[in-house]
Amino acid sequence: MAVLTFFIVVLRYGFDMGWIALQETVMYLHAAVFMLGAAFTLKEDGHVRVDIFYRNFSPRKQAFVDIFGSLFLLMPICIFILSMSWRYVANSWQLMESSQAAGGLPFVFVLKTLILLFAFTLLLQAIAELAGNCLALKTGKGLPHHSQPTSGA
C-alpha cells in the first residue's frame, strides 16, 4: 500500500499523470487493513485503552470490566452495524455497484462487504473474549494479555 501510494505521488507530481483506479486501490487496501484487522487487534489487546484505573486492577477486576465492555458496548455495536448495514451491502451487490468516478474501480460492492466482515469478525472475537474472561473469573487466573498490577514504586 505504501509503495503504491509512492507510485501514485510520483506519477502525479513527476509526470502529471493520475489514475483514479490506483487511488481507489489504495483506499480499498486501507479499508481492508483496518476493517479486517480490528478483530485481530482486539485479540492481541492492541486497541487504544484509557486505562488510568484498569492497569492497576487485579486480573479479576479486569475480567469484570472486559465482560461488561463486551456485553454492553462491543457486542451491541457489532450487532447494530450488522443489522443496519445488511440491506445497504445487499443493495450494492444487487446493483453490482461500481465507482462513480470515471476510470474508477468496478468493485464498490466488494468494498462495502468489508463492513459486514468487520462487524462479524469483531463480534466473533468479542464472544471469544467474553468466554475467556468468564473462564478467567471461574479459575481465578487472568487472561494472558491482561496487564499485571504495577507495584507502587
Explain what this protein looks like in three dimensions.
The chain has helices spanning 2-15, 20-43, 59-95, 108-139. By secondary structure, the chain is mostly helical. It has one domain (2-44, 74-139). Helix 2 runs parallel beside helix 4 (108-139) and helix 3 (59-95) runs antiparallel to helix 4 (108-139). It is elongated, with a radius of gyration of 21 Å. Mean pLDDT is 86; it is low at 148-153.
Task: Please describe the topology of this protein.
Elements: H1 2-15, H2 20-43, H3 59-95, H4 108-139
Write down the secondary-structure element order.
HHHH
Rounded to an integer in angstroms, the radius of gyration calculated over CA atoms is: 21 Å
Shape: elongated
Strand content: under 5%
Q: TL;DR?
A:
The chain is 70% helix and 0% strand.
Primary descriptors:
mainly alpha
